[in-house]
Write a structure and sequence with these properties.
This protein is an alpha/beta fold. It has a single domain (about 5-175), classed as Rossmann fold. The chain is about 30% helix and about 25% strand. Strands 3-2-1-4-5-7-6 form a 7-stranded mixed sheet, with helices on one face. Helix 5 links the parallel strand 4 and strand 5 (about 125-135).
């Protein structure tokens, strides 16, 4: 399974760390969200950014109704915020109110080099100290440039990080 390493990492991270506030770019069917909600026992809010269109491997459903239905399956009573639209617009709009607010951020949206770097740069100020950004598809055969995007991002921010090449790969950067 191509997302196995991502879902394994998210599960383990949520079981080992208190994740209160989670931001996800590129929600699609909600598989990663499901893992976080199932394992994030301290979870108070989830913020979900997607265009809900057919681009970037999206659902082409046009709205987030299927995610609302998915979340109804869980006893999660925290805040759910949908950031419908292009993450290059919706994520910067969270500043400055959400600076240093998120414990865990998943970036799995626009897979172009420019779009992926924009997402990484835009979420970084939103990550709390000791929080992390998980960047998916660093080893995806259709997007070989994403590994270089992640490497450049962590070098620029001098961020402690790890890369897991299993499946489609992922990179994790921690904010000091």
């Amino acid at each position: 399974m191509s997302s196995a390493s991502l879902h394994d990492y998210l599960r383990d991270h949520c079981q080992l760390h208190d994740v209160w506030h989670y931001l996800e770019i590129g929600v699609r069917e909600g598989d990663s969200l499901r893992v976080v909600v199932e394992n994030g026992h301290a979870l108070q809010s989830v913020w979900l950014s997607d265009t809900w269109g057919g681009e970037y491997g999206g659902t082409n459903r046009g709205s987030h109704w299927h995610i609302e239905k998915l979340l109804d399956e869980f006893p999660f009573l925290g805040r759910i915020a949908f950031l419908d639209g292009d993450s290059r617009v919706t994520i910067p709009a969270l500043m400055p109110q959400k600076a240093n607010a998120f414990d865990l951020v998943l970036v799995d949206g626009d897979h172009s080099a420019a779009g992926a770097m924009a997402d990484l740069q835009n979420v970084w100020p939103l990550v709390r100290p000791d929080g992390c950004v998980v960047f998916h598809d660093t080893n995806h055969p259709a997007h070989p440039e994403l590994r270089q995007v992640f490497d450049s991002f962590v070098a620029q921010h001098r961020a402690p990080h790890l890369v897991n090449d299993a499946g489609y790969g992922l990179g994790v950067a921690w904010k000091n």
